[in-house]
Amino acid sequence: MTSGLHHITAITRKIQANVDFYAGFLGLRLVKRTAGFEDARQLHLFYGDGAATPGSLMTFLAWEDGSLGRVGHGAPSEISFEIAPDAIGFWLTRALQCNVKLSGPAQEFGEPVLRLTDPDGIIVKLVGVEREEGAAPFVWWEKGDIAEPDAIRRLRGATILSEKPEETAAFLTRHMGLRDGAVEGNIRRLTSDAGDVIDVRGAAGFWTAAPGTGTIDHVAFRAVDKAQVDAVHAALQADDSGDINVHDRHYFYSLYVREPGGALIEFATDAPGFTADEPLETLGSELFIPAHYNEDHEDLKVVLPQFGLPGEERIIYRDLPFVHRIHMPEHWDGSTLIMLHGTGGNETTMLPFGHHVRPNAMLIGVRGRSNDEGHPRYFRRFDQMTFDQTEIVSEAEAFAAFVEELGPAYGVDPERTAFIGWSNGGNMIAAVMQLHPGTIGKAVILRSMNCLEAEPAADLSAAHVLSLSATDDFYGDLAQEVERRLTAAGADLTVRKLDANHGIGRQDEAISRDWLDGLIG
Asked: 479: phi > 0 → left, psi -120 to 50 → alpha, else beta; which?
């Protein structure tokens, strides 16, 4: 068996910072951008050398603003890249100049090692390695802004924390083709034919790893072809190795299995590779959606986080009171839609709706901060008709402050801005309008009701509101009270009751589009 690493996959919380570190600071090439094969609403980026060579690939799943994970036994704890030994000084200077957290250099297994920390807190080691004759090929990426002698060559390896280090090592040598190497303290080194390494560190007494951002999801090893993957699959089944999943990932065919210590291991073919749907010259320039997803691919592209490569324009997110996602169209017309989700949604849920209504508007999806019944909301409810009045008041105040910051933060023009909220999001808009008149001037509220027990005095004479309720909706008749309040406060109110249910669809989009066109152009 020809052994070696294929790729390593980790999870990032902020995709722009991730791109700036791996493509910008480290000088790797972005070789592929796709929606996730398991979740199309999750961006997946692949970095590598100039030719996307297996063994050079570092990949990231983007859990934008997602929960933090925890490093522990049953998962990898560090990744490492190979550089020339003489390049250690260059990287030390570069890290200091770029304010990248570092330690070292130090000696590990007789090699100089510089430890860096990426924006998510993942330990990235740069290891000085003397290249031997016949070593795995290295294709320099000339646009990475790193001179060839100093550039990262390929993956060097990973460290796996295991409560069962002997069993973990035996599994990897038996099924992934690694060989026993040197031992330092409680770290046992395994080596491959390609020259890369896996360090198995005994972690008895450590806490268990927890998935989330800032963690390494899995390590993938190289297979010659599909037949080899199938042969390893059969051997794993014969050894009763637990659950095994086999997938065609379009760019490679692979299996997933957990080694005895719990770490997720993948075994992936080199072919067909990343040039299967993109020429080598333009690798990483297009976003690909896996063909098996039936959802509108344009909707998915609106939901996935945007980023810019080094030298390209990018959205610089500001630290505002609410987690939010921005989608900037290719040709922005100067208008903005602020999108508020219903119970169980998040900051991306309403972005496709907004894109259908105004394709050339900047979209800002806002995540509710209340976590009620396990789902994001803008304020808690005690039952279907009763809401936490104290939280409504405090969250409305915070939202008004958020709206006030949008102009300085993102160039939002209040005169060309509208708010669209569905269900709990629409309820939030109505509450903000009553409690903070002047904050919201144009609003579409979908399947909404009044949630405020008090009726504050408010002058909404400058406000315009479209209310869309539905006949087959528990809350349909309840829209009348919020409509009465808005009208009594002087708002210019347009009301439509649709032959629909609590869900929203194309009819809502068409009515909203026509109504907004007359207000914000």
From this structure: alpha
> Does residue 137 carry a pLDDT above 80?
no
Cα of 360 vs its chain's centroid, Å: 24
Whole-angstrom distance, CA of residue 9 vs CA of residue 435: 47
Query: Residue 490 is encoded by which pair of tokens?
Result: 């002087």
Q: CA angle 102-108-109, nearest 5°?
A: 160
In 100-217, where does DSSP find H-type helix? 165-175
- At residue 488, the pLDDT reads 96
Question: How many residues in total does the chain contain?
Answer: 521
Residue 454 burial class via C-beta count within 10 angstroms: exposed 0-12, middle 13-18, buried 19 and up:
exposed
So what's the pLDDT on residue 286? 92
pLDDT value at 134 more than 80:
no
DSSP state, residue 414: G
Confidence class of residue 297 from pLDDT cuts 50, 70 and 90?
confident
- The answer on pLDDT for 1 being more than 50 is no
Look-up of token digits 């936490």:
388
Report pTM.
0.92
**Residue corresponding to tokens 């999108």:** 339
Q: What is the H or E stretch that residue 401 is in? A: helix 389-410
On whether the CB atoms of residues 352 and 506 are closer than 8 A, the answer is no
